[in-house]
Amino acid sequence: xxxxxxxxxxxxxxxxxxxxxxxxxxxxxxxxxxxxxxxxxxxxxxxxxxxxxxxxxxxxxxxxxxxxxxxxxxxxxxxxxxxxxxxxxxxxxxxxxxxxxxxxxxxxxxxxxxxxxxxxxxxxxxxxxxxxxxxxxxxxxxxxxxxxxxxxxxxxxxxxxxxxxxxxxxxxxxxxxxxxxxxxxxxxxxxxxxxxxxxxxxxxxxxxxxxxxxxxxxxxxxxxxxxxxxxxxxxxxxxxxxxxxxxxxxxxxxxxxxxxxxxxxxxxxxxxxxxxxxxxxxxxxxxxxxxxxxxxxxxxxxxxxxxxxxxxxxx
Length: 315
Fold this sequence. Notes:
It contains 1 helix and 25 strands. By secondary structure, it is mostly beta strands. Strands 12, 13, 14, 15, 16, 21, 22, 24 and 25 form a 9-stranded mixed sheet that branches. Strands 2-1-11-10-7-8 form a 6-stranded antiparallel sheet, with no helix packed on it. A 5-stranded mixed sheet has the order 4-3-5-6-9, with no helix packed on it. A hairpin with a 2-residue loop joins strand 7 (about 100) and strand 8 (about 105). It is elongated.
């Protein structure tokens, strides 16, 4: 089933973490002018630092990195205010200004939806979105295949999302392969082949066979063996790792730099969740993964082994 977050922390602490859903502000920052236009940053921590990235695609929890020379390394900070239900912006740079709606932010300013924030030559807009974490893991409401709501327990390790992105069905196929073996070898049997198929995004239509441990991330132009490389600018260069779990006979997803959203259909119920960078889970056939603007689905093909025997030639 689903893997859980592993940590060296005491069990009681882990149980508390599972009962408490991650923070979600219901806001995101989107670059509307300047370097990285179109890039989106979900605001999922109570404190965030906006500053200059040392490398393109640099990401870290609690930071909004902008790859632009006019941005200071620590340019501004956002602090969540529970009473105002919004962020308060504090200007930090001593060399470059911060503007809110074209007005210098010399003093702390409460942010409102659709406010524009100018950091150097980069303009961001704060946008209100649906909260991605709705509450405790169980019980919760899932969307049925017919569109009705139904109460029930989520798969272990998954927290609910408000998003109702439609499930993209991908049938599991079976194909036969003739295998020639020598006398005394193993006969017959069945194995599974795994592929990630891109159903949405710049690489739509492409299919990537999975074998062993695979990196999952943005194509930076460098040759990377054993990797699923995407041309999506919102995907991190080292977004996640797909690792084969022999005891389970399944692939394990481990986000490394950025979270991955997943949708799974179980017994007619469509569950959605986000796997944080400290999490991991076992993937199932037809799981739908979202990274940036890209959606991929896991295809599992059962391969029947047809054996053709031949006598071993004496040397």
